[in-house]
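Batch 3, record 17
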Amino acid sequence: MKLLSIRSISRRFGGLKAVDNVSFDVPQGAIKALIGPNGAGKTTLFNLLSGFLRPDRGSVVFAGAEVLGLMPHQIAARGMARTFQQTRLFPKMTVLENILVGRHLHSRGGFVSCMLHLPFLRKEEHSARETCREILEFLGLSAQAEEEAVRLPYGQQRIVELGRALACEPQILLLDEPAAGLNIRETAEVGKLISRIRERNVTVLLVEHDMSLVMDISDEIVVLSYGQKIAEDKPAFIQKDPEVIQIYLGEGDA
Amino acid sequence: MNLDLFLQYVVAGITYGTIYGIVAIGFNIIYNATGIINFAQGEFVMLGGMTAVTLGRFLPLPAAILAAVLLTTGVGALIEILFIRWLHRPSVLRMIVITIGLSILIRETALHIWGESVRALPYFTGTSVTSIRLGGVYISPQVLWVVGISAVVVAILWGFFRYTLLGMQMRACAANRDAARLCGISAKNMVTLSFMLSAGIGALGGCIVSPITYVQYDSGVPLAIKGFTVAILGGLGNSLASVGAGMLLGILESFSISVLPAAYKDVISVAILLVILFARPSGLFGSAEVARLKEF
Amino acid sequence: MKKQGLQIAGFAAVVVAIQLAASLTGNVYHLTQLTMSAYYSLVVLGLCILTGYAGQISIGHAGFFAIGGYLSALLTTHDLSAHGGPIVSGLAAMGILTRRPDLYGGELLTVHPWPACIFAVLTAVAVAYAIGGPVLKLKGHYLAMATLGFGIIVYRIVLGTELVGSADGIYDVPAFPLLPRVAVSGKSSLQVMNYYVAWGFVILGMVFLLNLVRSRVGRALASIHGAEDAAEAMGIPTARYKLKIFVVSAAFAAVAGVLLTHYNGGVGPSESSVMKSVRYLAIVAIGGMANLWGALLMSLLLNYLSLRGYFGTYDDAVFGVILILIMLFAPDGLLRRQLFEDLKAAVFPAGGEKET
Amino acid sequence: MRGRNGIIVAIVALALLVGAGVQAAEPIRVGAILAVTGPASFLGGPEARTLEMLVEEVNAKGGINGHKVELFIMDSGASPEKAVSFAKQLIEEKKVLAILGPSTSGETMQIKGIAEEGKTILLSCAAAEVIVNPVAKWVFKTPQKDSDAIQAIFNQMKRMKISKIGVLSGNDGFGSAGKGQIEKLAPENGITIVANEVYDKASTDLTAEVTKLKAANVEAIVNWSIVPAQSIVIKNARQIGFQGPIFQSHGFGNIRYVAAAGAAAEGVIFPAGRLLAAEGLPDSNPQKTVLLKYKKDYEAKYKEDASTFGGHAYDAFMILAKAIEKAGSTDKEKVRDVIETMRGFIGTGGVFNFSAQDHNGLGIDAFELLTVKDGKFALYRK
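Prediction for the assembled complex:
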């Protein structure tokens, strides 16, 4: 059963075909990885899926409905959450508050009711905080709840951003290089975390450079090169795929 | 409207246009070097005019103007060194507020130095009534001075940025600070230079237009506002375009009063500013891409 | 929330204390300027939430103040008895019109302050909605310019339109009967009452805004300020939120405009001048951008001093200097604990200060 | 939070102290609300300087009836809201006998009611007719009436057989008030306005406006303004070759405007108080001595030419001083009554004859038609 299916999606910047006629599916409950050398169009593809970029053509069907052309916040509301390659934590907010922003979609208070602080808000706020504390527990960040997020060590910032996305209770989570700039130990932890996220029956689509991580956790891998999909298969086979090896050796990357 | 009248309006338009253009160039130079809009730009124009008038009492006109320009250039440098240079990655909001503060400060200082009264330099040639008659059109020689000197300034600037090492270094900084720094160009000095440059140009502008427009402690702000409009109209950071935009706005204004009450003249120009901002912030002549890679 | 209750209570106590102090020492007249400051503080609070919290600069808020003040003044002073006609009689039938004597024993038929006020504020809100859409798409300098432009347009129109008295503005604006026996009026006999009315409004506004910033919406606004794309990715409709908060702050300014106009008994073009907008922004900056209490206190202090003429001919200069000093050395405002660290950070960039 | 509340308390305590500081019974307290800075500073500046000079002079002579004069000059920057605040402050706190100014009509109208309520004499230095018409008990003004100035111009036009005129006016209070009066009086004088333009006080070039007038073939231009931009008008008019006569308002009565306009100012005709052409007056003229003295003193003290604006403040203060002297007391009511019945007071603006109906006290005879000869003001010889 596919949760997300991408059909011949393309986007060009001036002369450059950043994403060229790419199609693949993400089955419900899977961890799917998107790999490829730098400039292969992985992040562009993410931006297309999450609505930050408009594709030139193609279709993205998510949970049985076309999401192309929707605003990012609308797509998020459909249950697709994402993280960014460079951390985008909210400054001057504690870790808890950052995660609370993730609960936005699951609370109702509008401008007027918030200004008047209507009674129902107290309950809403309370339950939101509960959920977030639970998430912090899950992330093992309870201790840092009240610290200013952007002052945490980099590794933990990545985790907070991941938790913020998780707080949206998405059906699918798009992770843009979750392990970027992390050391081996931290990377391993992120790997474990992602698998545990899957256990919360959240489907995961991730872009990652760290091959060991990708090979460990993902069920399926899509390989992009110069905007085109050149392979899609189980990790074991991808590792043997001559074309993939060729690119990576050619790139001397990873 | 007969031809003479039409042309008379055009001449009037060109007069305003040149003035606005000069102010706009000042904005652009600083914007390119720093990404800051210097809200105190109009004050440079005012300072130039005021100083020149004062110095004019004991110096011959050209000397007075030269001295005024140099002095204002110094002020420009001083401002950058005192208020901008040592800031650590200042936010746009912060820079806006600082330059606004500077504009107020300079204006009020001028008020307490020179008092509230209006001043003007003498006409460079002839008197306030001499005018050259071309067909049915009357042109004050001062207008020719303004247009002429402005043209020269623009030409020199263009040459400076294209062909001198310093100019190219400034462009390099504008295009990519970090890369420029790697090539051993001191970005900070380039910024100081840009402030001096635009202060000097503003001052010169103030001197050459003061016989026509007069100068007063508070004549900076209205000019600055027109300057913004033109700078945006031409596409922020694009000096040559802003000259054209200046002309365009000036002529629009001078014709607007033939159909609208003059009291609303300024509403027109600001309304244009808003429309441009909404429709295409990159300016009339600039495309979005061009707007991104800054050019002088 | 408890903490907030205490703050408000403490502040209310201070408001009362000031009145008692003034009355007991026989200096009641201080309340005049304090009342005016209160109304200006409303504008500042509205701007603080827009610029400080949601991160959207506005150099045109005096425009909204003026729209409120001028419309209310125009409707409550423009004599309709001359016009007659079905519309006027219709309005009269709806009880929207009212008769009152003028300064010289004549009689005027004008719109009653309540409908006038409502109309004025609604208009300001409508204008905010209309321009907010395109304006808030802009960022940085472009946003600053657009709002500045809006302010200038209002100023020019006010100055160029004879209906609103061009340069003279509108005068002989009547008192505003808010409730039976409670009126916004400059009469010296009503000085104390008006002091409480004004500060009542401020406290009310403060409660609303404090509730807002501590709520889901407040977090959303702060997140827009912090990282707009991330906020969008969390499902926050950033464009709509920016527009709404813009409208809210415009409404604050308009209400202030209406009330102060009735309190002063008139309004002039200076209320819509760019310098006014800059002052509001200055106060927000000095108060510490995202700091409602700071903005409120600074507004109280600076407006009070300015309105009493303590700054003499240096009034604007003082604002300019404060503005520069604060922005250079304490960009996060004065009323904060880690002020000293920031000063250090500002002086030795190595410290790397945070930026809003 | 406590800390912050503490701060407010401190602030206010301080403020109250400062406020309470100003309490001295002996001297005669006089307030002045003037636009020393801001868009009308060209009015407020000279006015403030004149008042300072006069107070010094009076106090040097031992004050009025032995009472020294204590003057509070408040700079309103031409903003009504400040004028309102200051008016209340002066009346309730400083307990002044009278308020001189404000400089602009707008501010004056804004505080008219406050002066009435506070039963405090208001001697405005602003021109607009509405200030004293309808008459308010406590409100007077010293500048001549616009309508008289305009009538003087129209009379001259009739002599010159001019019937088609173009009108330009500044978008300040002075300009719009004059514009209104011109539109009102023109028909009665058989004069038609064929073009009517308003320009901004910050205008830098008005060629377009005058071109429009020239295109309408007006026989004469009336330029009604008090701001510097008015001399740009004359200049541009001459530059585009307009030959007809140019009439200005008494707002032109500032030699700097003449200097600014340069040669273009030559031959401009405008009505004004006699201050500007004092030297040229016949010795028989009652004002001559007063005018020359004020001029001499002011120019000696401030090294700048005296203007009629300063003159308005001079008159306001002198009228008040005279009234206090005559009333022999500082009782507001008494002093006010003296002013209202004051006749034949010789000021810079003219000979004032106040009455219950006329709180300005000047007639058309207060005006002299002046012109500019070799960059100087001179009486216009018809």
